[in-house]
Specification:
Length: about 375
C-alpha cells in the first residue's frame, strides 16, 4: 500500500472517527483504525462494537492495500502536522508516514482481524436534510436515560405511523415526543429503538453534504446513517419500549401561555437557591402571572414573577430545576404552552400552535 494526500483533508475527519475507538482495551484491534486505500480513496474506519464510523478522503494511490494502525498515536501525530503533503507506505508489518520534515513508523495489525462495521446496509428507511431536522432531534435526544440499567430507555424510539416517523425518548421521569420528523420510504415491521448515543453522534458529523440517508437492517439489528463520505452504524436496542401513549395526559385543568425566555431566566435565577434544597423549583400559577420560587432553609429563598395568560384553574406544582433547564434550552421557540392537572400529575410543555411536539415532566411532591 502506498498513497499521498493533503493532511488537512484527513484532519477534518479524524476527531470524529476517534468517537468510535474503544477505550476498554479488551481487544487490541479495537484501539486501531482500519485504513483501506482503493479506487482513489482512503477510507478510515473505527469501531468499539457498539458503534462504527467510516469516512473517506480523495487520495493519490500508487498501490492499493489495507491495514490497521494504533488510532491514538496516528490521530495525535496527524493533528500536530499542520498543512502538508503526506505519504503513507506499507512495508511488511510497518506503515511509514512521511511529511515535509517528518518520518514516523507504526506497527500494524492485519486488516483481516478488524470487525466488519456491517454485513449489509439494509433497506433505505428515509432520507432528510440534516439542518432541517436538527432542531427536532435536539428536542428529543436529551431526555433519554443516561445509564443502561433499563436498556430501552437509553434509546430513542422510532415509531412509524402513516409513513411518518415519530421520535420518543424517556428516562422514566420525563418524556419528549416529536411527531412527523420525516417521511419513510420503506415501512418498518415494528418500532425500533436507536441508542441515544448514535443520534448524538449523527449530530456531530461534519460534512459539506447535508443530506442524510438512513438504512435499517432489521435482520442484522442495525441502523446506518450515511452523510457525504461518512457512514455511522450502530446496533438497535432489542428491548420492549414502554407504552408511552398511556402516560400522556389527554385533559388538563390549567393551561398557561408564556414566554420561553422569561421562564428560562426565572429558573436560572431560582436555581441559585434550589441547588441547596434538592434542586426543587416551584410554580405558583395565577391568572396573569406565574411565580417561580425556590426555598433553602440553610441559604434563603427567592421568587421571580413571569407574565402569563392562564386558562382554567389557578394551580401550583414543583419540578427538578435541571429538567426545566434541559427542556427550555432544547426548545428554540419563544411562545410556549404549559399544561397541568394538579400538583401530583405530570406537567406538559408544548410549543404554541404546534401539535407535533410535547415534553412531559413528573412533578416533585412538596410540603406546604
Amino acid at each position: 500500500m502506498k498513497l499521498t494526500f493533503l493532511s488537512d483533508n484527513l484532519q477534518k475527519k479524524i476527531s470524529f472517527l476517534n468517537h468510535a475507538i474503544s477505550l476498554r482495551g479488551q481487544l487490541p484491534i479495537l484501539s486501531n483504525f482500519l485504513l483501506e486505500a482503493k479506487k482513489g480513496k482512503l477510507t478510515i474506519s473505527a469501531t468499539d462494537l457498539e458503534i462504527g464510523i467510516s469516512s473517506s478522503i480523495i487520495v493519490n494511490i500508487e498501490t492499493e492495500g489495507r491495514i490497521t494502525i494504533p488510532a491514538k498515536n496516528f490521530s495525535d501525530l496527524l493533528t500536530n502536522l499542520g498543512s502538508q503533503k503526506i505519504t503513507l507506505s506499507l512495508d511488511k508489518e510497518t506503515l511509514t508516514l512521511k511529511g515535509e520534515k517528518i518520518t514516523a513508523s507504526f506497527q500494524t495489525i492485519p486488516a483481516d482481524d478488524f470487525p466488519k462495521l456491517y454485513e449489509e446496509k439494509g433497506e433505505e428507511l428515509t432520507s432528510f436534510k440534516k439542518p432541517e431536522i436538527e432542531e427536532y432531534i435536539l428536542r428529543v435526544v436529551f431526555a433519554a436515560a443516561q445509564d443502561s440499567s433499563r436498556p430501552a430507555l437509553s434509546g430513542i424510539l422510532f415509531d412509524e405511523e402513516k409513513n411518518s416517523v415519530t421520535l420518543v425518548s424517556t428516562d422514566g421521569v420525563r418524556l419528549s415526543l416529536q411527531n412527523s420528523v420525516f417521511k419513510t420510504k420503506e415501512e418498518l415491521k415494528k418500532p425500533i429503538i436507536v441508542p441515544a448515543r448514535i443520534i448524538k453522534e449523527l449530530l456531530a458529523i461534519k460534512e459539506d453534504e447535508d443530506s442524510v440517508r438512513v438504512f435499517v437492517s432489521e435482520e442484522n439489528n442495525q441502523i446506518l446513517f450515511a452523510q457525504g463520505e461518512t457512514t455511522l452504524v450502530g446496533r438497535l436496542i432489542g428491548a420492549e419500549y414502554p407504552d408511552y401513549q398511556k402516560i400522556i395526559p389527554q385533559n388538563f385543568d390549567t393551561k398557561v401561555n408564556l414566554s420561553r425566555d422569561e421562564l428560562l431566566n426565572a429558573i436560572k435565577i431560582c436555581s441559585v437557591f434550589a441547588r441547596e434544597a434538592a434542586n426543587i423549583i416551584k410554580f405558583t400559577i395565577t391568572k396573569e402571572k406565574m411565580i417561580v420560587s425556590a426555598n433553602s432553609p440553610a441559604v434563603g429563598e427567592d421568587n421571580v414573577e413571569v407574565e402569563v395568560k392562564t386558562t382554567g384553574e389557578e394551580n401550583e406544582i414543583a419540578f427538578n430545576a435541571k429538567y426545566l433547564l434541559d427542556i427550555l434550552t432544547a426548545i428554540d421557540k419563544e411562545d410556549l404552552v404549559f399544561e397541568m392537572t394538579g400538583p401530583l400529575n405530570p406537567g406538559v410543555f408544548k410549543i404554541k400552535d404546534d401539535e407535533k411536539f410535547l415534553h412531559l415532566i413528573m412533578p416533585i411532591r412538596v410540603q406546604g
